Amino acid sequence: MSKIDPLVLAGAKSKGKRPYFLDTDVERLTNIVLVLAQELAVVRERTDTLERLLEQSGVLTRQEIETFTPTKQQADERGAWTQEYLARVFRVLQQEREALQAQEASSEEVADELAKV
Amino acid sequence: MSSLVSDKPKAQPARPYDGPPDYRVVGQHGMYPQLSHDEISRFNFLAHMNRHLSTQIMPGVKEAFDARVEPKFIATQGRGFKDRHEVRKALLKDPMFQWWSALRRATMETRQQAGRWVTLRQADHLNAKAKALTEHDQRLKLNPDLPLPRYVEAIDHHCMPGSYHTELAEGDVTGPCNYDIGIFATTGGMLGRYNDGGGQAIAAWVKEALPDLKPKRILDIGAGLGHNVVPIAQAFPEAEVVAVDVGAPMLRYGLARAKTMGVENITFVQGDVSDLSDLADESFDMIHSCMFLHETSYASMPKIFAETHRLLKPGGIVFHVEQPQYTPEMPLFEQAMRDWDAFYNNEPFWTKMHEVDLDSWMVAAGFAPDKLIHGGVAAVVDPDVFPQAAQDTKQEDYGRKAAWHVVGAVK
User: Fold this and answer.
1) B116: nearest CB among A10, A27, A38
2) What is the pTM of this model?
3) A4, B118, B202, B299 — which has fewest CB within 10 A?
C-alpha cells in the first residue's frame, strides 16, 4: 500500500511565499467559495448527465422535468427541506440574534466565578 | 401542423457557444490516469473559470487602469509611469486587479489540487505502469547525482507542488501526470488534444521556414514531460531526438507517455542544460527550447546558449520559443500584466528574462548577427474541437496566450 495520502498531499502548498491581494481573511474565504462553486458545477454536471441518460433510456423526458409540478404534499416537503437547509446555513446569524437578547458571561468569567471559594 | 410547444423541444442556446470543449476531447494516451465523472467536471469548471477570468474579468483591469489607476498616479505624482513595476504596484492598490488576481491565483491552486487528487489516489498504479514501460529501456538516462539548479530548487514553478523534480515514492510520476492532465484547465483548452499545440506549431514552423532542413539529430532542452517534443519527433520520424530535463519524474513519465503514443525516437536524458558535456561537439542539426528560458537564470542563460552553439553542427539551427520580450514599443500596462505570472504564479525569472535583448546574448554565445532568426508561431490544434489561438483576437491572456515568439540562429 502506498504511503501517499492524497487527502493530505493533493492540497499541498507549492514552494514560494504566497501573495495575497485582498484582506487576507476575505481572500481565504474567496478561495473557499471558489471551491464550493467548483463543487456545485461538479454536482450540476452530474445531474445533467443523469437527466440525459434517463432520457436516453426512455425513463423520462427532460420536458417532464421542466414541467414538473409538485403536489401540495410534495411542495410542502420540499419547502420544509429548504427551511431546514437555510436554518443550517445561517445558524451563526440566528445565534447573533439570540445573543442580542441575552446578558451572558463568557466562559472565562464563569470559570473564574466557579473557582471562587 | 404547427405548435408553439413541440413535443421534443430543441435546446435553444441563448448565444452561440464559444467556451472550451468538454474535457473528454483530451487525448487518452497510455499513461493517462483514470478520471471519474466528478474529476472531469472539476477540470471542465476550471477551464471555464480560466476562460471567464481572461475574457470577462481581466478586460476590467485595463478599464480600471484607464479610468482610475493611471489618472490617479498622474494626479498624485505629476508624471506618467516610468516602468512596468510602477504600473504593477499601482495596479496592486486597485480592487479590479486585486480581485482578478486573487481569483486567478485561487484558480491555479484549485487546479493543482484537482489534478493531484486524481494522480495521487492512483499513484501506485501510475508508478507501476511507468516502471513497466521504462525499466531497462536505454532511452531513459537518469542521473540521480545531478545537482538541482537553484532556479528549480528555489520555488515550485507555476504553483505546482513539488515542481518538476520531487518524488513522493520510488519511480514517482504523479507530478508530471498531474501537470499533463491539467494543462487543459490552465489554458482553457487552448493547447489541443495532447497539450502539444506548441510543439505542433514548432514543427510546422520549421518545415515552412526551413524546407530543406532534414535534421538527423534533434535536441530539446528543458523538455519537461515531452508534450512539445513528441509532435516534433513525429514530424521528423527519421531523426534521433534527445530530450533533456533536470526532473527525473518528468523524463520517466515522458518516455512512458511517448511510447504509448507510438513515438519511439526520443531519448530522455536527465541533465542540466548549462553543462551537457556528455554530448559531443557539433552533434545536432536542430536544438530548441519551448517556454523554457523564462524558468532559468541570468547565470545559466549564457552557458545554455554557449552549449547550444557547441552542440550544433555547422549549418544547424537553434531556436527558443517564448512569449514576446518587453520592448520599448510594448505598452507598460501590457508589460505589467505579463509580469503577473512572474510575481504571483511562481515564475520569478519571467520578468527578468523578458527584459533582456536575446539577440545580443545569442551573439555573445558565438552566433553571427546576420544568422539570427526571428519568427512567430501560434498553437496548432484540431479546429473542429479546440479554439485556435491564431484566430482568437478576443482573448489576450497576457503571457498565457497560445501564441509565441521564436528567437534563434543558424550556425
Assistant:
1) A10
2) 0.90
3) B299
